[in-house]
Specification:
This protein has 383 residues and is of the alpha/beta class. It has 2 domains: 105 residues; 221 residues, no CATH class. It has 4 helices and 27 strands.
Amino acid sequence: MRARPLSDERGIALAVAVFALVVIGALVAGTFFAGRLELQTGRNTLMAAEAAEAAEAGLNAALAGQTAASLLALPVDPDPADADTVLPHLAMGYNRSAVRTINRLTEHVFLLRSVGTRTDASGGQMASRSIAQLIRLVQADIDVAAGLTALGDVSLTGSSEVSGLDEVPELWAGVDCPPLEDVTGIRYNEGEVKFSGNGTVQGVPDTVKDNTLTTDEMKKNFDKLKSLATLIVSSGNPPATGPVHVGDPARCDQSVESNWGEPAIQTDPCSNYFPIIYHNGNLSLQGGRGQGILLVEGDLTATGGMVFYGPVFVSGTFSTAGNKNQGAKFYGGVIAGNVLLDDTNKLSGQALVSYSSCAVRRALQNSSTPAPLAERSWVQVYN
């Protein structure tokens, strides 16, 4: 008996369906895998961007937090790998933070580095970026070449004294100062130096008539410093100047107009505060003390034992008055009369104007401001 040929193929549908499900499943799995990779890549890119932003924010905050005093206190070391000075850790929320270090490469150039980190909720590091920036101290460029520089007559009365003999102020005996170098006592252009009483002038030489002094050149230097002013004094007759503290522990309150630093006590919180002080109009100082650079666009009158350390620039008349042992004292140098050539610069009482390269340098250095070396001067670095 012959066998009947097979013609029933109903079982193929199941095989095709299973195969199709396998193919579709593979496609779906591949799509989900590619999507997951893309999501993870996006998350990694986002976290890397957050770490980079944290590093840049840390860099900007570190630059804003630097002062001339803090930078000048760092040792000079041209090799950043030798001696990193660690700055305070900066936490920015959302699991972002930055660790900053700074190195002093030369006298006025510094390397600031910031490592930004993005972590997960448990503190595990997800991304890290490191950037670095070169910064420098922008310092006023001025030349003080005499104890007193004037563009008009100079009148010394009483027991007033002008000295170009370089010396370190007595209260700064332990301060790092440049080598002493004597200069002219009084340097002037037009007019004459007049004496009345026991007024004295010392210098190398005592007096010099310098025809190269011009109003335009002195005004140019005045305007250059004016653009860098850090303290604007609005009152023409402010209270006695001196250090002002706030908080516990005490810190120097630089927002107060009458706070002109503390030159007398080197351990005071304001001892490294050297503002560039500017006043528009006539200014009368009645006692107190201060340090930095003083700019007066008008006349300056100092009485009551006022003591100031640093260069003084007066566009009008510079004059002092005081009883015995109460004359104003200026250490650093005075430049006056850069507007009117017929101004009379009067020193009376027991006033003292004494040249001090130490006071000039400290005022210039400590009143300088940190700034990036060039636009967009930071770059990403790798360990």
